[in-house]
Every structure is written in C-alpha cells, then in structure tokens.
Amino acid sequence: xxxxxxxxxxxxxxxxxxxxxxxxxxxxxxxxxxxxxxxxxxxxxxxxxxxxxxxxxxxxxxxxxxxxxxxxxxxxxxxxxxxxxxxxxxxxxxxxxxxxxxxxxxxxxxxxxxxxxxxxxxxxxxxxxxxxxxxxxxxxxxxxxxxxxxxxxxxxxxxxxxxxxxxxxxxxxxxxxxxxxxxxxxxxxxxxxxxxxxxxxxxxxxxxxxxxxxxxxxxxxxxxxxxxxxxxxxxxxxxxxxxxxxxxxxxxxxxxxxxxxxxxxxxxxxxxxxxxxxxxxxxxxxxxxxxxxxxxxxxxxxxxxxxxxxxxxxxxxxxxxxxxxxxxxxxxxxxxxxxxxxxxxxxxxxxxxxxxxxx
Length: 359
What we know:
- The protein is of the alpha/beta class.
- Helices cover 38% and strands 15% of the residues.
- It has twelve helices and twelve strands.
- It has a seven-stranded mixed β-sheet with strand order 2-8-7-6-5-3-4, with helices on both faces. Strands 9-12-11 form a three-stranded antiparallel β-sheet, covered by helices on one side.
- Helix 7 links the parallel strand 6 (186-190) and strand 7 (215-220).
- Helix 2 (67-77) packs parallel to helix 9 (256-266) and helix 3 (89-101) crosses helix 8 (239-248).
- The radius of gyration is 21 Å and the shape is globular.
C-alpha cells in the first residue's frame, strides 16, 4: 500500500523560494557581507538600551495594535491613525496587501527585475504575477505597466527606489501614471530606501497618497534605521485599505522589542540624518570609483549599486568572495552590492578594477 502524503496546494509548486543575501563566512577569509542591503552602523543612540529594557517583558504578548508606535508614526508623518498599519517589515505588509486584494484569477503587476518577494507573495496568494521588464536604463517602464492592466488587475507594485537597481521613477512620470490607473486598482509605492534619495525629482509617496484613495505607501525600519533584525515596517493608506491590512496582519507579529526600538529610532532623527548622509557620501565615492574604472553603473538612489554583468555575474561574485566581500548575484543579469564599511567598499572597488581589466 502506497503511503499517502498531506495534500498541499498545487499553487505552491512553482513558487520561487526567497534567497537571502549570502552571509559572511564565520571561519573563512570573507569578512564583509554586502549582499543584504543592511545598514553597517549599529542601532541609533538609545535604541539598543530601549530594546534591552523591552526584553524584560518577553513573557508577555506585545501590544497587537502597536499603539505607541502608531501614535509616533501618525505624528512624525502627519497622517491619521486610521491610515496606518504595521507588519513584520515592509515585506510583511506587502504580503498583507496581496492577501487583501488578490486571489486566484486576479493579477498583480510589478517591474522586473524588482524586489524578489513580489512573485513569491503573489503566487502564494494564488494570484497571477505580471512582470514588466525594466527599460534599458533599468527604470520602471510605466507605460508598459499601464498597457498590461486588464479587468483582472488588482494590485500594482512600484518599487521606488527600485531593488536591486537603485533607480527611481520621477515625479512627473509617476503622477501621470497614477492619474491613468483605474481608481479601483491599488498602487503600492514601496519606498524601503527613501531615506537615501537625493534626486530632487523624486516623488515622496506620502504627498501623492493624500488625495489618491488607491495609493498605498510602504516604509520600513530595516534599512536606514538599522533594525533589519527586528522586522518592523508600516503602510500609509486610506482607511479602507489600512483597515484591510490590520485584518490580514499576523496576530502579535510585531514584537514589543521591535515596537520600542522603532519608537526610539523615530526620536533619534538627527543621528539618523547624519548616518544616512555618511552612507550617501560613501555611495557617491563608490560610484565615482566605478565610473573612473570604466563601469557604467545604474544611477542609484539607494544604499547599494547595481552592475549589469550578464553571463559574467557569477564570476564577479566569486572574485568578490575570494577577496573578502559577499555581494548579491542575480545569475545572468548582474550584481547588487550594498554600501557598507569603507574597508569593505575598498575591497569591492579593487575587485571591480581587476575584473574590468579582464573584460
């Protein structure tokens, strides 16, 4: 008699597995991890102390409503409490958005290549992903995304700045796009890297959402705020969408430690600004170094750089690893390299220079 196994959803058969950035070897030559867009700085002043104090109540469930954090976010961004929802990082909130809007037979549109989680969370919900290739400049092709809209479209992701290219959609193009998207389709502006943007033509999603009920803005504490290990993100959207997000949230998903650390981080804005400015300056140094070597990196506004390498992608990643840094390869396409410690960036630049000579 053949032993039967539990029946699982067939929709999961083709779902890709999320691949995190490869960690630095604990006992090998690799010393720096530039593969996950993590902030190289420790938590902001006072944050670690607040988190440690919060750990004393680990035997209790966290506040499911995240009342303290929600109040802080409402004041910080001048939005109504009813327009806020939290989750386990912006990716957790993104999954809640798909669950709230799309199911079997529905479609979710996003650029490609973009954030790796989009196809995963779309297919897990049973919806159909519609991937729209980036332009030759590695920017969202908004006209093609508009043309892809059908009566089955329920959700559109616009990752701005885009992960992994770092490129941005400018204000005029995005406003024109939003004006032409049907009002019953939700457009999600994923702004995980907004703090690193210095392009004056970049559109702040919070300005766009206020008079557009079908626009939702995603933010995270994982990148600029340096809380990647605590998993806390949030969305700003009009009340029907925000209420749906609160319904689809994992109960008690955002820990008490994460909530307290996020509040403390919001109250350390001056220190945040200094650190982000330092990373932006280091980003400029790395881009200038690559350009001087003859590379043409995508114009990045995030805390990473993107190099298109095609079939040489894995060769380049291997060279970086042998030299002491881990980067994030996308086989056949290119590598994403986080702006990290100065020493790590210098190693990456040396590898890039040597590799360039071989091309």
